[in-house]
Amino acid sequence: MSLHKMIDDPSRVIVDACRAAARRSADLRFVERPGYFTRRGRTTDGRVAVMSGGGSGHEPLHSGFVGAGMLDAAVPGSVFTSPNALQIEAATRAVEAGAGVIHVVKNYTGDVINFRIAADLCAADGITVETVLVADDVASESEDGPGRRGTAATVAVEKICGAAAARGDDLASVAALGRRVAEGARSMAVAFRPCTVPGASSPSFELGDDEVELGVGIHGERGTARVATLTATEIAEALLGPVADSLGLSGGEDVVLIVNGLGATHPLELDIVFGAALRYLEGRGITVRRTLVGSLVTAFDMAGVSLTAVRCDDEILGLWDAPTEAPAWPRSPAQDLHDDAVDDTDAAAASELPGGAADPFVTTWVSSFVERVRSSIDELTDLDRRAGDGDFGVNMEIGLADFAVDESASPAAVFEILARGFLGNAGGTSGALFGAFFHRVSVALDGPGASTASIAAGVADGLAAITDLGGAQPGDKTMVDALDPASRALGDAGSVELSAALAAAAEAATRGAESTTDTVAQRGRASYIGDAARGVIDPGALVVSWFFAAA
Question: Which of 13, 49, 64, 225 is the most exposed place for a label (fewest CB within 10 A)?
Answer without folding.
Answer: 225
